[in-house]
Amino acid sequence: MREIEVFIDTEEIADFFMKELIQRGYAASEDELEEIADITFEYLIAKCIIDEEWEDEA
Known about the structure:
Elements: H1 10-23, H2 30-46
Helix pairs in contact: 1-2
């Protein structure tokens, strides 16, 4: 199996959910969207879909 590198940003996830919820007639606050994004990120980690890596700040 080939490994690919994917970057997932929780801000991107929050924006995606905001757009999708609005299209479906729902509204969420910015804080709620951030929580949903964090939960989604944690779900992807728990299912071993992604690995969390920290960048060295130099």
